[in-house]
Amino acid sequence: MSLLEETISAICPADNAAREKARQHILNLTMPRWALGRLLDLAVDLAGMTGNFPFETSRKRIVLMAGDHGIVKEGVCPQPSSVTVQMVRNFVRGGGSINALAAGVGAEVTVADFGMIQPVPDLVEKGTVLDCRVAGGTRDFMNGPAMSNDQAVQSLENGIRLARKFAPETDIFGSGEMGIGNTTPSTAILAVLGNVRDIASIVGPGAGLPENRLGHKAEVIARGIACNRPDPVDGLDILSKVGGFEIGGIAGLILGAASLRKPVVVDGYISSAGALIASVLKPESRDYMILAHGSAEPGYRLMEELLHRKPLLDLGMRLGEGSGAAIAMPLLDAARAIVTKVATFTSAGVTSEGIKKTRQG
Description:
By secondary structure, the protein is α/β, with parallel strands linked by helices.
């Protein structure tokens, strides 16, 4: 059995007993019934994901995966692919937005090369970038598959290995990415899984593509899908034909974390494309996904629907890097604080009459 097959077979649905234990505890807290709304829903979800109540959230790690894309040759992005490695070096120096945001919430940032055009052996040797390299960028999927089937498996399994490597010291994973042009494969994945006919309706500017070029981007995606004809019920086929190495890595991270009952805070658009691949490979993996924020990309709302999840935040962001995951992580800490620090009616000595009045608000 391959690592991918082994991991997929190990993923179980969320623990309903732990969810119910959390729910009953929350109903006994000294507040009106479910007064903190989705924060309490999150607490129940975290209990179900981890199989524990109370659960832990203190050890956070954002895994930022980098890869380049052959489709950039088709003019779908205003920046050249060389920016990918430049930004990775910036992350290693601590100069990225994700570095600032992660430091503010106490999250570690791990950077991994999943397939940049330009390798970084100096950073790998120092240990500041992990070598999960599949190849030097994907191929141009407008003229054939983005990668081979074996490469798709390798990207997934490398993501799984990262989950396994860091799981013993991580309570909460976050997904992040860097890859010039990666909104294009992400949109192609969404179009296939959402059976989108009008691809222009889900195409956004990504990293600043001018509005007058969006139609061209939609045409490139449509031609790539028509050329490759990915199977909408086969996540591996979709990934290999129109995906990206870092997108496969994100899907693998989610699958690996889910197999170990570790929650994953899924950053915006590109990370959600990886989550879509994971959900096709193993629908139960959705039980371990927490959508961080609603991306400003127009296709994101359809991603929410396909994942059957609602993001915690909606701030009009479109950065990537794991930035939304970092911003959302304190909400998980808040959920834990509520269920571990707020008194119950019993411990507070509140009378039955007082309980009735409190629950009525």
